[in-house]
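Hi C.,

You asked whether I'd gotten around to modeling the 82-residue construct. I have! Everything is below, sequence then structure, no commentary in between.
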Amino acid sequence: MLGNLWKGYGTSILVGAGVALVAPVILPAVATIIRPVAKATIKGGLMLADKVKEIAAEASEQVSDLVAEARAEHSAGAASKS
């Protein structure tokens, strides 16, 4: 009965043990490659966020200008009708 319990897990146990033995060697090497890529990705995201904020601020300013012009024209039209 105990033999049947472990029968399907033999390969998985060997693969897990192999990964556990190789991981301390592989992970630092992978980290030295991935860290600069991750850092560049984060910097790119920050630059993109800054650009989006800038574009949104400009768009907001233009909308505010349009609203001010429309109010001025509306006020001038209402004053001339009185």
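If it helps when you're writing up: The mean pLDDT is 86.

Thanks,
B.
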